[in-house]
Amino acid sequence: MLKVLFVFGTRPEAIKMAPLVKELLRYPEQFQTRVCVTAQHRAMLDQVLAFFEIKPDYDLNLMTPDQDLHGLTASVITAMKPVLKDFKPDFVLVQGDTTTTAAAALAAFYLGIKVCHVEAGLRTHNKLAPFPEEINRRMTSVIADYHFAPTESARENLLKENIPADRIIVAGNTVVDALLLALEMVETSRDPDIELVKGLSEGDQKIILVTGHRRENFGDGFENICRALKTIAQTEDVKIIYPVHLNPRVQQMVHERLDELQNIHLLKPLSYPAFVWLMKRSYLILTDSGGIQEEAPVLGKPVLVMRDATERMEAVESGNVIMVGTDAAKIVGTCHDLLHDEGLYARMSQKHNPYGEGKTSEIIVQYLKNVTGDA
Ligand code: UD1
Ligand code: UDP
Q1: pLDDT tens digits, 242-283
Q2: Is 16:178 a contact under the CB 8 Å cutoff?
Q3: Which DSSP string corresponds to 342-355?
Q4: What is the whole-number distance in angstroms between the Cα of residue 291 and the centre of ligand 2?
Q5: Beta strand 284-287 with 303-305: parallel, antiparallel or unpaired?
């Protein structure tokens, strides 16, 4: 029997790991499965754990107010050691490119434990964008033994870095599995956040859904984004709904500039099903998020990405995403075009599935069934 330890810490990792945890738990005769959360995020992680009904076996509870990269990285490495020594997994599964991902992979490597990387091979090829995620995922690729790449282009990125071809599995992205689960559950869920967004969305105004949290946008970037949102709210017949990330720097910046403005609704981070409901209901999405760039094409929602570089070119190529950076005039202008140019809107609203059909967890688990601990 293989012992498998999932390690994750932030909201997007939890969303993308949840379907995989559930899938692996279906095979108790083959896998002894444990979940360790670093709780790099606390409230935003707990929202996801509650929705997917996942109870961690180990909760390191590491989040501190206004944590920094140095302190968190050190504490993940240190706190992982007793967990790894206690459970002695054959495999540690990490996801994506956060501090938790890279530090947990390193902690496992130090003890000679094999690492599987879910969502491997994403690259902008610019080490400063996104910061520090591009380096986190490159470090994780160097450490990992098995690489579950979402797409062919992610596989090619890994091959160029001399990762052995037989250790790369193109599996799609578990985000589609999670999204499909949420879409199913949203219909019957009694989640209060769903009631909140349903109430807010009443009326004929087009809804622009906004999120933002990237470090490289702090300062001028966020300043410009807020300016753009204010202009859009004043000049277009829209309702802007913005669930604000709990990072205190983001909270402060956004609330200081956008509180109490007409047509702008600032909310707490929404539960995953409520956010999915709102994505479906919205007219367009403005974001710097990675995961939302993957979910929106499945829903056929146009996304304007407020970043200079993306590691997810598939949705740009399929026409669902336009890169607008953080230039206020460009954000306002592109929103205006999408609100008034029906042809453009129709082209950007085609549904696409570059990240798989929602079977990624099954593909990964089937693969793991055939590998052995000493492979
Ligand atoms: C992290 C990831 C980023 C991912 C994002 C998802 C790193 C380096 N970055 O960025 O890749 O896109 O999560 O949202 O790992 N906070 C709270 N409550 C919460 C969550 C966060 O107060 O529920 C606060 C933390 O205390 C911290 C700040 O928000 O001060 C930032 O959190 P952190 O995990 O350090 O980085 P993120 O910007 O969230
Ligand atoms: N999301 C959510 N509630 C919100 C905003 C986003 O559940 O209020 C979900 C969203 O659907 C996506 C994920 O969170 O699956 C994206 O997380 P985030 O943008 O924080 O991180 P990134 O994907 O950029 O790493």
Answers
A1: 999 999 999 999 999 999 999 999 999 999 999 999 999 999
A2: yes
A3: HHHHHHHT----TT
A4: 6
A5: parallel
217 secondary structure, DSSP code: G
Q: How remote is the CA of residue 90 from the centroid of ligand 2, in Å?
A: 30
Is residue 133 annotated as a catalytic residue, yes or no? yes
Active-site option among 23, 97, 134, 236: 97
User: Which residue intervals of the chain bear CATH 3.40.50.2000?
Assistant: 2-173+357-374, 192-348
Q: In this predicted model, what pLDDT tens digit does every residue of 142-192 receive, in sequence order?
A: 999 999 999 999 999 999 999 999 999 999 999 999 999 999 988 888 899
Give the integer Cα–Cα distance in Å for 202 and 218: 32
Please give the CATH topology (third level) of the domain spanning 192-348.
Answer: Rossmann fold (3.40.50)
- Superfamily grouping for domain 2-173+357-374: Glycogen Phosphorylase B; (3.40.50.2000)
Rounded to two decimals, what is the model's pTM? 0.98
Residue minimizing CA distance to atom 2 of ligand 2: 272
